[in-house]
Structure formats: structure tokens, C-alpha cells
Amino acid sequence: EVLPLLRWYVTDALASKPHNPQDVMKVLEVLALYHQKEDVSLIYKSILLPLGPQDPAWLSILATYRDQHPFLKPFVQALSKHPPSGRVGLAFLKLCDHLSTTKQYHPHGFNSEAGLAKLRSYLHPQSNRSPEFAVAAVQSAALLEENHRESLLSLANHHPNPSIIFLANVTRASLGDHVQQQALVDRCKDMMRSYETQLKLQEIGMETLIPEEAKQPEFLALAKTAHWLVADSPLHRAPDRLQLLESRELFWLPRHKHLRLYAVKYEFDEPVGNLGIKDGIAIVGGLTHSLIGETNSAMELADIYGLHCCWELEEMHDPLAPRQRTAKLGRNLLRKNNPDF
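RESULT FIELD:
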């Protein structure tokens, strides 16, 4: 009794009658769950119009077609002729990737001139889209026939974003390109880029390419610090120099077990960020982090460990986290389980 009312709401929206866009998307999410033929048609029309093309809800709507959907093939066939734009297009691309990977649908829904044109637009150097579109295009390239794949990867190799070029090289390596595989081995040996490369190789099941020297604990501590500074810190900059100050084993309260911890000093030749940071200390072993603006290289390492302990307890939502983060409280917490600290 309810579904006809929901369909009526979408039909009105398609006829440009007054409606709340967010409500329409919620209704489409509900209708998608039931796999009814008339709702497949409504969803298809809503994509083509389009209704809410930038709404992230399309990801969950199209995910309902991933497995055992009775109208999967006609839906994908129809939409492949006119690949949609915006976030609904990205959601459709992810659906096609899944169907291709699980061999539920062949060929890939973007393995056509129309699909290729859409993926090329994602990789256009002047595109004002979010980087996730370019990333998705490179990831999908591996699932297309060779001539389409090469067209996209060649375009990605000239992208202004280095991470897109890196992803294109990883894709080539995963497809058996020995030159790119060796390039990734060499990249693992580069401390400033090693950890990102190792993570990607593990993700694609090619961790055997990681050289032994890049797996050594002290090298990894330095590599993780460099990666954190670029990817997760507010500075978003690789350091000019890294130095391992010390390594010690402690009972690390945030993890409630013994861990090997590393204190790593990083330096910049020129001041970086709003605070004009020239150096700092990162603690590696638990959650890699540096309390920028709160700690500095002139402080005693015990104080830095103490502050980092308090911070990590907070991040883990541990009830032992003190209400106020201070070096003294952190040192006292560590000393309870590490008498020699």
C-alpha cells in the first residue's frame, strides 16, 4: 500500500512539481531496496533527468544492483549508453567495477566510446571535479579492454596530481608491467615515498615486491613519519631531513601492551604552516603522530612520550585518558607500568 505513494512522490518530482530534493532521494533509496520493475524504471528516469546528480545517496541506491538483482542486465545496458554525470556517474562506475570484478556483467559498463569519453573527462587536467573522480577512472582502467585501458593510463601519466600518476603506474605494475614493478621497488627504497608505496603494494596483493631494507623497523619508523607529515598532518609537506633519535620498548597504555616506540625528529629548511614550523618530534609505534605546536625538539623526550600517551588515549576514547593533557600526567601514567621510565 505504501510503495504506490512513494512512486507518486517521485513521479511528481520528475514532472518538475514542487518537491524536497532530499526527500526524493530518501524515497528512491527505499524503492531501490524492493527490486520492483516499475521502481527500476523510476530510478533510471531519475538518473537521466537528473534528480540530485551530486547527491551521495546514489552510491547506496546503485549498490542495491550489485548482486542478484533481477533487472541488473537491462538496467546496466540502458545506462551504459548514456553514462550519467556527477556523483551518480561515479556511483554507476563503482557498480560497473564491482560487476566486472565479480564477473556478473561483461563487458564493463564503461567499455564503450561513451564510457571512455566520460572517464577521460574525469582525468582532464583542468577538471574542477574532486580528485576521487580521477582516482576512480584509473582504477576502472584495469577492467577495460587493452586499447581503452592504455588510452586512460596514458592520460593519467600526464595528470598534474602526482598521486594520480602514481596510481596509474601501480595499475600498470599490477597488470604485469615489469618496468613499473621495478620502479615501485625503487620507490619503496625512497624513505619519503616508501610507506605510501608499501601500503599500495599490500592493497593490490603485490607485497612481495617490497624490498627487505624497506621493511626494517627503523627505516619504517622514518618512512611512516614522512608519510604522516604529507598525508595526515596539517603541514602536508615532506620534511627535508629525518633523524631517528631513539627507540625504546614500553608498556604502552593506549594499547594495553608492550610496544616498540620510536622518536623521530623531522626538519624543514624553511618555516612551514601558520605556526612557522621548522622542526618537530613524531612518535611512531602506536598511532603515528606529532603534536605540532604542543611539542618541539627542545623538550625532553619523556615529556613528549607522556603527552603523546595522553593524546593517544583520547583518540582511542579510553576512559583512562586524563581530562587535561599534560606532560606530567602522561609521564605518571607511563611510569605506573614502566618503573624505569
